[in-house]
Amino acid sequence: NHTCGIRADDGLVMCWGENEYGQTDPPEDVAFSALRVGGEYTCGLRASDSIEVCWGTQARNFWR
């Protein structure tokens, strides 16, 4: 169980909760415009180019 949010001032992601698979460890210094949070993963749209970036256990299984 985890959740994430986007900081309004700079677009950086903050996550908290269970982190067994790295799902609460977003990329550092990357701004996001939207997030999608699942059981053991998190995905976000990079603000600079709208490319989806995922982290956590299932990150490699998503279409980009």
Structure description:
With 64 residues, the chain is mainly beta. It has one domain. It contains no helices and 5 strands. The strands form 2 sheets. The protein has a 3-stranded antiparallel β-sheet with strand order 3-4-5, with no helix packed on it. The protein has a two-stranded antiparallel sheet with strand order 1-2. β3 and β4 (41-46) form a beta hairpin. The protein starts with a strand and ends in an 8-residue tail after the last strand.
For the termini, the CA-CA separation is 24 Å
Q: What percentage of the residues does DSSP assign to strands (E)? A: 35-45%
Our count of domains comes out at: 1
Rg value: 11 Å
Helix content: under 10%
Oligomer: single chain
Task: Give a concise summary.
This protein is mostly beta strands.
How do the helices and strands line up, and which of them pair or pack?
Elements: E1 2-6, E2 13-17, E3 32-37, E4 41-46, E5 52-56
Antiparallel strand pairs: 1-2, 3-4, 4-5
Record keyword descriptors for this entry.
mainly beta; two-stranded antiparallel ribbon; 3-stranded antiparallel sheet; 5 strands; 64 residues
